[in-house]
């Protein structure tokens, strides 16, 4: 007697979106890391930018070192050594460079057409943009930390020759160093958001510079509190009037530390949300 094996039903082949293998977050982060560093502008802007800012801190500190004997009692009483670590000019340069890197990280993909390949391979656009924001923000946070600690170390080493240098444990120093470091990823993510909206290199860089650096420089405290509240919503203004100072002044016309940290948190968050929404709703 012959036996016949029961025919086993064959499972239908998967079809549709569920058939596509889900790319792991690690793979997305690795891809965005490679794309970011494949841009030569990233290496040049970050490398030269960091060296330039540290050199400016050294030069400013040396100038103060030489002229310190000529300072009067009032000037010495109001002198803040942290202003030598990162001056307003250096911060402007730092924010412009960071915003440019953030904008180019996405505009470059549109210019080269690589964005089509990326979104074809990973149709979940929100995951792609979230990974890009994470890589850009993480890299720029590392750069900001190097700049913050590097400028502090150089400037205070020079100023200590006059007995006016600070150490990491002095009151207010950690807060200022944190604010100095966070300006870099904040600017980069804002540049990323503007780049996603405009998708044009020159327009994105110019707009980011205008919003982050140029416009806030024209603001100053006024008698209108609504205007002061509006000014305080710009990161550069909040940094300059509050977070960059060892002992921020407490006046209704000036930003508060709490409000300034909130501004530092909201700008990159809104920029990432805008990036995700714009890329999801647009055709490539």
Automatic annotation (TrEMBL):
Entry annotated with the keyword Repeat: no
Signal peptide interval: none
Disordered: region residues: 1-21
Source superkingdom: Bacteria
Biased composition, class Low complexity, residue ranges: 1-10
TM spans (from-to): 44-65, 85-112, 133-155, 175-194, 201-219, 259-279
Record keywords: Membrane, Transmembrane, Transmembrane helix
Name used for this protein in its record: ABC transporter permease subunit
Organism field: Streptomyces milbemycinicus
The organism's taxonomic lineage, starting at the top: Bacteria, Bacillati, Actinomycetota, Actinomycetes, Kitasatosporales
